[in-house]
Amino acid sequence: MAETQDVVELLLQDHRRMEELFRLMRSVEADRAAALKEFADLLIAHALAEEAKVYPALKRYKNIEDEEVEHGEHEHDEGNKALLDLLEVEQVGSEEWDSKLEELVEAVTHHADEEERTILNGARENVAMERREELGVAFREERERQLKDGCGSVDNVRRILNS
User: Fold this and answer.
1) pLDDT tens for residues 41-65?
2) What 3 state SS string does 99-131 have?
3) What are the DSSP calls for 33-66, one per residue?
4) Terminal alpha carbon distance of the chain
5) CA angle in degrees (0–180, nearest 5) for 54-144-115
6) What is the number of other CB atoms lying within 10 angstroms of the CB of residue 128?
7) Is the pTM value of this prediction over 0.90?
């Protein structure tokens, strides 16, 4: 199967991977710390690439509301804060860790669900495939650049929240 360039499909693939990582972080049999590291990198890279390459382009389409895009950016901040809270817990699998994980799951799941129903459905209906593929290439390149920089480190998440 050929890799898609469609930005909508790429975003959905990231959302599904995040859900898989949530399952791993909840599992006592899994390497929860490794799942958290992968999740942190993916969440931060995904959000930064979305805000840099996708959201500004989608604001130009009349059937995709600016308020939805701005709300998505606000929800990225909430997810980043919940991520930082979890990254700062010292003992993986502790009661505090489990509690902070559930807060993160709630924040990110809420955002992904809303984004899929509003922004991504709007993009699928109103943005030509050629343009969605151009955005997909730009999104993927920016996401990969962020991943190479270790964007999910606790220090970088703190920096993002304080900027």
Assistant:
1) 999 999 999 999 998 887 777 556 6
2) HHHHHHHHHHHHHHHHHHHHHHHHHHHHCCHHH
3) HHHHHHHHHHHHHHHHHIIIIIHHHHTTSTTS-H
4) 40
5) 35
6) 8
7) yes
